[in-house]
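hi! just following up on the protien thing from before. the input was this:
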Amino acid sequence: MSKDTNLWRIEVATTGTTVNAFEEALDPFCGAISWYATDNEQEWRIEGFTEKKPDPESLAQAMSAVAEALSVIVPEVSVVPVAPRDWVADSLRMFPPTDAGRYFIYGTHYVTPPPVGRIGICLNPGRAFGSGEHATTKGCLLAFDELARSLRFSNVLDMGCGSGILSIAMAKTWTAQVTAADVDVNCVLVSKNNIHNNAAARQVRVVRSNGYASPVIAANGPYGLIVSNILANPLCRFAVDLGRHLDKGGIAVLAGFIEEDANRVRAAHQRQGLRLLRSYKINGWVTLVLERRGASG
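and the predicted 3d structure came back as:
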């Protein structure tokens, strides 16, 4: 690699439970940073860029401090120089527009207007999960597309909103009032920014909440539609809360888990009176659409 490079990429492989802590430790070394889930549910990847090669000792100390605090193994850190390139062309190639039913998700680098008749969502990969190309997000969007053919919702909840992509989609699909919640403050900030950029700020309220704990969630409920694109364990743990906040006859769209976990996620919600309407399987990931029994009130 040429010694004239003026950009370095730092990569760290971690897990969903530790990604936030390691991202915060890496942030001071980077001018730009993002993280995302891989196709393996247990693995997340942090990617940062900096114009100055980080000091190896300082970087190692930062990673070690987090690992020690969390009692986990220090993750492997990769620091590589990045060759000069056409970043706009690379962005178009690496993050092309995503099609999911009636939805067309694209980045700010994409200058062509969305196709006529499609719901456009302008969203870049960043410091929050959900950019449209992952199977879990796509499954939720396909579920919305089918639900919108026969159902209307006026009050919906996005539990674990990540980048805000699903909140934006629901707001634009049903002109609904949306409550969006996430435990991660970065996700709250990113969601607010994306929602504003997509002209949906009047419809969507974003709150920081550990699960359903925020009083705003209770005050705005019950909900005709709840979507939760998180992992299997928290979905099962929050099943009782979801059942408590979902209106009679309401719909739940659940995602963020692999096929092996689908039965236990389904069972946890069946115990709350929900029945399976349909499921979507994409690249080993599953999205469930369930209905709460009883006429809506």
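The longest helix spans residues 56-70.
The first strand starts at residue 8 and ends at 14.
cheers
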